[in-house]
């Protein structure tokens, strides 16, 4: 497998992600959007930081189950239920200070959205990995 991450000339500088991710692989892994749910099915407590931590944990478990690591991630979409730019920035910072950080050096999108699927849910992340 080969992953090439680039920032072409003519595009703006990024805060850590790459504009283009090219993959030559035999197998792709698509995770369902990972929510801040505990194994019991209950929503994680602790507001946005607590929920983001649970999403990180859930992604790490799902990647490991697929035989993948954060370095194998080729695309992420991060959804934050907030119109506040500082909330989005706080999630981005927390993700990039976590064991999952290598996943966010690739093609990534960070979105503020009106609502997510579970009552009280504040964050969800969609992940694609290449093996």
Automatic annotation (TrEMBL):
One of its GO terms (cellular component) is cytosol. It comes from the Bacteria. GO terms for molecular function: deaminase activity. CDD domains: YjgF_YER057c_UK114_family (cd00448). Pfam families: Ribonuc_L-PSP. Belongs to the RutC family. This is Enamine deaminase RidA (YjgF/YER057c/UK114 family). The lineage of its organism: Bacteria, Bacillati, Actinomycetota, Actinomycetes, Propionibacteriales.
């Amino acid at each position: 497998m080969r992953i090439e991450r680039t920032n072409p000339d003519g595009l703006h500088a990024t805060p850590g992600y790459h504009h283009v991710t090219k993959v030559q692989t035999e197998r792709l892994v698509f995770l369902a959007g990972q929510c801040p749910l505990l194994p019991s099915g209950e929503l994680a407590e602790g507001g946005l930081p607590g929920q983001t931590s649970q999403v990180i944990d859930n992604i790490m478990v799902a990647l490991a189950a697929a035989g993948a690591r954060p370095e194998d991630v080729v695309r992420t979409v991060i959804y934050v239920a907030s119109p506040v730019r500082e909330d989005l920035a706080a999630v981005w910072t927390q993700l990039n200070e976590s064991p999952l950080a290598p996943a966010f050096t690739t093609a990534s999108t960070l979105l503020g959205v009106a609502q997510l699927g579970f009552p009280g849910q504040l964050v969800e992340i969609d992940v694609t990995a290449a093996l």
